[in-house]
Each structure stands twice: as structure tokens, then as C-alpha cells.
Amino acid sequence: MVGDSITEFQEERERLNTIVMRYAGLNMKRFYNLDSQVYREGALPARTKEMLGLVASLVLRCDDCVKYHLVRCREEEVTSDELEEALAVGLVVGGSITIPHLRRAFEAWTQLAGERP
Amino acid sequence: MVGDSITEFQEERERLNTIVMRYAGLNMKRFYNLDSQVYREGALPARTKEMLGLVASLVLRCDDCVKYHLVRCREEEVTSDELEEALAVGLVVGGSITIPHLRRAFEAWTQLAGERP
Amino acid sequence: MVGDSITEFQEERERLNTIVMRYAGLNMKRFYNLDSQVYREGALPARTKEMLGLVASLVLRCDDCVKYHLVRCREEEVTSDELEEALAVGLVVGGSITIPHLRRAFEAWTQLAGERP
Amino acid sequence: MVGDSITEFQEERERLNTIVMRYAGLNMKRFYNLDSQVYREGALPARTKEMLGLVASLVLRCDDCVKYHLVRCREEEVTSDELEEALAVGLVVGGSITIPHLRRAFEAWTQLAGERP
Amino acid sequence: MVGDSITEFQEERERLNTIVMRYAGLNMKRFYNLDSQVYREGALPARTKEMLGLVASLVLRCDDCVKYHLVRCREEEVTSDELEEALAVGLVVGGSITIPHLRRAFEAWTQLAGERP
Amino acid sequence: MVGDSITEFQEERERLNTIVMRYAGLNMKRFYNLDSQVYREGALPARTKEMLGLVASLVLRCDDCVKYHLVRCREEEVTSDELEEALAVGLVVGGSITIPHLRRAFEAWTQLAGERP
Q1: How far apart are the first and last CA of chain E?
Q2: What b/e string do you get for A36-56 counting C-beta neighbours within 10 Å, with b at 16 or more?
Q3: Chain D residue with Cα closest to F58
């Protein structure tokens, strides 16, 4: 069972995307579309692509992006061991500056796993 | 009429700048001065410069900087269509990692425009 | 008349884009298409959009991207004074770390203007 | 005497590191260890290393990292004048995009110094 | 058969690493060691980890790092279709600013595949 | 005795700065001035400030900036042991993505020290 803050995160994300779409022209809409297409199963499985998105988000240090991909990784049944190894690659590539994001990533993962934080 | 959170943002910004100025030496003060000079009308109109500052802030993913330039864009009577096109350039240059900032940018714009978020 | 190194830059860019397109799937092709659409004249003139792309490229410190937008700025008849002011915004936003790119930007601009570097 | 928000920051940091360590494999643990070793006194004094970590954190724009190094700088008896000069280097290298982080840095420093913000 | 520029890249990399090791203290050596450990097969296969390293390197826009992981991806028998999909994730996350690196990535891949560029 | 490539680096830097100054308006000139003032001896010694500039440049991954500060560190009689420890902080903060720049930093240092690379 998913903890409150993840649910709130997703609702807030939806609320704000609705505002974006009120203003978005064709190019922004195309970008949004592309942003979902690129994670679809293809030569690489969707779960691998979600881990790619996760590690890219960690090294670029975007908490919202990390959280989004964690939700998707959970849906794709990425295990905690797989997750830890993916994040370890991100930590070594991106350095200690990623640690605050790593902390929040594992906290969100704990919530997603239904464990007490 | 501007929504509360923009007003609060500006008051907080002022409060913190006062703290900075309590410590700032000559070089920091010069930087602050330069940071306002560079947006003054010249060969380029102030409104174009504010859009340059806005897009630079979006691709560097600084919410506070984005919000500041949105306030200034509004004062310079940048339209919602112009804003959307400027942000679309930033989105394509900076990628999906800018989307969380884009969302918060449009929310702030909605507040600035006096519409309900 | 444009100096050699700009011509070589454009030829190399074409050569490499041909290689990309040999591998590119639908999503990459869509991204490339979006990347040209977003600079088209709309509510904002094309020349303003090129300056937005230029400053975004400067603060993100991408020499190739800066050079590309300089060529386009020249085509859109951006003046040297306008260019200097746009780059000054980028310099103040992005800091001294952008200076090596600023140097190469002005050198390319000199070549584009047909002056001796 | 240290203000509340610094204490809360340190407690939250501890709480989250405990979660990280629940998942961390050998490589993450080694990284955490390395991250503390590298600031130990050696050819350079610990206080110089903390200022290096501080300025690196400012230009990479990580509030949590800045705050952590401020706490350590205070422990190493870095003076407010030394701090201002170190942050001024960071401001000029990193540009105006670092200003929101600079503001929060000086606010935290005020708290660490036991002065009213 | 691998083209010249990849061989030269690897030899130059070795030559420079030898210089680093002449100066490196214990912490740098530990970092280098960690940097190879983290890509070892574990819960995730080595090939997945190399793709994670590749996409992280693309979004952070490091040509040398991209090239290194391309060599490793080739050794791990990543196919061109898999590679294209991984890089497409990086392109969408990191935006058009990654395109110059994407171009050089595919050129290196062409060399690694023994095809004429 | 300084090796050729450092001399060439400095001459090229001068040549390009001359081009910048041909275009630079008052704000750019002020920025350039600020960029030299901020490293002047004050509460912190010039050598500490050069190391701050060096580590900031390493984590932001700017080879030209790293090289410039290495020249200055050498002039300020920073020892190889001090340099290694400063760069180790940068490596851990910035991660493996800084390694290509670290390699080139030590190569330049070898040249500056008059040793054979």
C-alpha cells in the first residue's frame, strides 16, 4: 500500500499538468507525448527504460523526476536490490552532490514498498 | 490581482536579501548591482532580456529565478502566448528534466494573471 | 563572407546528423523535428527565439549549440550590440564558468561577420 | 546556540541516512565512507577542505550540501569574513543562478551564529 | 574491427590514468576502485549497468564517459536497437543540448561496429 | 619550466579575450573585473581562493577554468599534495563524471611542474 506522500505527489503532479495543458501549444504537447513514448517497451523492456530514466534523474538531481520513476519502477516490479544497484551507479557517476536526492529516493521507495519510513 | 504565494515569494526574497547584504563585501554588492544592470533596456528591450533570463533560469532549473523573471515578464506585458513559446524553447533545449519547473512556472503565471490555479 | 571554421562546423554537423539518422527510431526523429519547430516564428519572432536558444546554450555551456544559434542569429540580422547584451545576460546568470564559451562565441561571431579574428 | 531549523536539518539528515543504510550495499557504504575521509585533515587543513566542499556545493546549487558544510565551517571556526569571501568566489564562478542558494546559506549562517535571522 | 579513433581514445585514457595514479592518494584510488566495482554484475546484469552509465553520461554531457560506456556496451553485446532506445531516453530527459554528444556517440558506435562512418 | 601546451593555452586565452573586449559593453567589462577581484588576498589568502576556484571549476567540469586555476595555484606555491587533496574533494563531490577533467588537470600540473608528462 502506497503511503500518503506518494499519493499527494501524484495528485499534485496531475493538478499542475492540467495547468500546463491549459497553456501548452502544439510543440509542448508533442514533447509531453514524446516523453511518454520513449519509455514504452521496445528492444529494451519498459523496466530497463524506467531505471535509465531514474538514474538520469538522479544524476541531474531532480527529486520529482526521481520520485516519478520510482513509482514506475515499483509498477514494473524492480526489486530493492536492483534499485540499490541502479542508484549506486548514479551515486558514483554523479558524486556526493546526489546524496540528498538519494536519501529522498530511498524514503519514497520505503513508502512505495508499504514499509514504515 | 496577484495571488498570495507570489507576494510571499517576494517578501521572503526581500527578507533574505537583507541578510545577504548584512554580510556582503564589495564584490558581492557589485555582483548584485550587475545582476540588475544587465536586464536594463539597451539595444534589446527589457522584455526580451527578461525572457532571456527566464529561459536561462528554466534550463538551469532554478524555481526562484524562474518565478522572479515571470513577475518581471508580467510587468513588461509579455503575453501568455509569448511566454508559452519562450518556455517551449527552454523545454526542448533542457529536456524533460525541466518539466517539474515548467509546471511550477505555469502555476505562478496563473497566479500572476489573477486566474484561479 | 563566412570564415572556414564555420563552414567546416556546419559540414561536420551535417555529416554527423546523417549518422544519427541512420540509427534514429521514430522518437529521435520526432525530437529532431520538434527541435526545429520550436524556433519557428509565432507569437515571438524567430530572431527572439534564436537569442533564447543562444543564451540557453551559453548557460548550459555547449559550444556547438552556441555556434549553431550564432549562425542563425546572423541570418536573422541580430546586430553585434544586441548579441553582446544577450550574451551579457547569459554571463551574469551562468557566471565566470561560461567565459571560455563566451570567448569562443565572440570568435565565431567575428568569423560570421567576415572580420579577421 | 544553534537555531531550530539547523537542528531539524541535522535530525532529518540522520533519519534519512538511516533509511539509506537499510538498503545500501557495499559500494554505497564505501562511497559514504569516502565522503567523510576526503574532508579529514591532511596536507590541507580540515577547515580549508570544508570551504572547498562549501563552494563546490554552492556552484552545484545543493542547499542541503551547503547547509552541511556551513555547520562544519562553523565547527572549524571559519569567520564570517572568510565565509563571505569563499561564497563570493562561488557566486562569481556560478553566476546569479546561485543567488537563491546564497540567500539560504547566509540565513543558515545567521542561525549558526546564534543571531536572529 | 574497431576504428583508429577508439583505439587512440583508449590509449590516451590509459596514458592519462597513469599520470593520475602517480599523484593519487588513498581516497582517489578508492574512488577509482569504486568506479569499476559499481558496474560489476550483481542483481542487475553488467550490460544494464553499462547502459545506466551511458545514459547518465549522456545527460551530464561527457563525451569521454559516453565513449567509454559505448565500448563496454559493445563488449556486453548491446544491440544497435537497444542502444538507440537507451540514447532516446537520454535525449528526451536531457534535451537538445545533448544532441552534439548524441552525434558523437553514434559516430563512435559506427566505428565500434566496424562500419565506415 | 612550463611546457608548451600551457604557454599556448595562455596565449590563446589572451587572443580570445582581446576579441571579447572588442565587443564587450560596460556590464561585461565589470564582470571581467569582478572575476579578478574576487581572487585577491583578503580574509582568505589568495592561494586558498585559487583552490576554491579550482574545485568549483572541476565540479562544473570546465577544462579551461581548471587549467587557469592550476597555473595560479602553481604561482601561489600550492604543493602537489595539497593539490591532490583539493581535487579529491572535487572528485567525491562531483563524481566519476569529473574524471576526464581530473586526468587533464594532472597532466597540466605535470607540465607546470616541468616534469615529463
Answers
A1: 13
A2: eebbeebebeebbbbbbbbbb
A3: D56
Q: Are E96 and C40 in contact (CB under 8 A)?
A: no
| Cβ <8 Å between E106 and C60 | no
Distance CA E10, CA D29 (A): 30
User: For residue F90, how many other CB atoms are within 10 A of its CB?
Assistant: 28
The fraction of chain B above a pLDDT of 90, given in percent, is 91
Task: Answer yes or no: do A34 and C37 touch at CB < 8 A.
Answer: no
CB atoms within 10 A of CB E82: 18
Q: ipTM surpassing 0.85, yes or no?
A: yes
CA–CA separation, A82 and A74 (whole Å): 11
CA distance B9 to A87: 34
Query: Given CB atoms, is D24 within the 8 Å cutoff of chain A?
Result: yes
Summarised one tens digit per residue, pLDDT across range C7-31 is 999 999 999 999 999 999 999 999 9
Residue that is written with C-alpha cell 515548467 in the block: B102
Compute the Cα dihedral for C90, C96, C98, C99 and give only its sign.
Answer: positive
State residue F19's pLDDT score.
97
Question: Could you give the residue ranges of the DSSP H alpha helices within chain A?
Answer: 4-23, 26-37, 46-59, 63-75, 80-94, 99-112
- Quick check: F96 pLDDT over 50? yes
pLDDT (tens digit per residue) in D55-98: 999 999 999 999 999 999 999 999 999 999 999 999 999 999 99
Q: Does F96 lie at the interface with C, CB-CB under 8 angstroms? A: no
CA distance B9 to chain D (A): 12
Q: Determine the 3-state secondary structure of A116 from DSSP.
A: coil
**Dihedral sign (CA A42, A46, A47, A48):** positive
Burial class (CB in 10 A: 0-12, 13-18, 19+), A2: middle
Cβ separation D107–B25 shorter than 8 A: no
Q: Which helix (H) or strand (E) holds D3?
A: none
A113: how many CB neighbours lie within 10 A of its CB? Answer: 13
Q: CB within 8 A of F18, min separation 6: which ones?
A: none
User: Are B20 and B28 a contacting pair, CB within 8 Å?
Assistant: yes
Q: Using CA atoms, how far apart are residues B83 and A111, in angstroms rounded to an integer? A: 37
**Sign of torsion, CA C87 C88 C90 C91?**
positive
Torsion-angle region of residue F70: left (phi > 0), alpha (psi -120 to 50) or beta? alpha
Of A23, E79, F113, nearest to B113 (Cα)?
A23
- Report residue F32 as a C-alpha cell: 571581467
The Cα–Cα gap between E54 and C114 comes to 40
For C64-102, the pLDDT digits (tens) are: 999 999 999 999 999 999 999 999 999 999 999 999 999
For residue F25, the SS3 value is coil
Residue type for F38, please? V
Mean pLDDT of B35-58: 98
CA distance readout (Å), C50 to B51, E93, F99: 12, 22, 34
Q: What is the dihedral of CA A60, A64, A68, A71, to 10 degrees?
A: 110
Smallest CA–CA separation between E63 and chain F, in Å?
A: 9
Place of cell 611546457: F3
* DSSP symbol at D16: H
Burial (CB < 10 A; 0-12, 13-18, 19+), residue C79, is exposed
Element (H, E) at B99: helix B99-112
Residue to mutate among C84, C102, C111, with most F CBs inside 10 A, is: C102
Amino acid C108 reads A
Give the residue carrying C-alpha cell 543558515: D108
Share of chain E above pLDDT 90, in %: 91
